[in-house]
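seq:
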Amino acid sequence: MTKIRNPKQYDLEDRTLEFSKRVRVFIKKLPRITVNFEDGKQVIRSSGSVGANYIEANEALSKKDFMHRIKISRKEVKESRYWLRLVDTNNDPELEKGRKELIREATELMKIFGSILEKCKEGK
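struct:
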């Protein structure tokens, strides 16, 4: 039997994928200095984990598993925001603008995942 999905799941899957892609484009534009290589690797990993864990949540076998994966997605997006704050833009206005946009998106995703968790708790 085919599992029927809520279209909103796909929207958030797409949104987390887009966030991860935008992070990668941003990292490629950063000055090529040692700290950016290290911090860039971290933000690339964590940003990719946001969507990967959300996809896993949508395939969860139980509510507990679903909530666990959503918590991981929220944790990974918080981590992404942290690493984005650390990368060195060399005060380039365009890079600073890109960083702020990505931090804003990470913050919005954190709120979305937090809201999903609250709704799950209310449904107990």
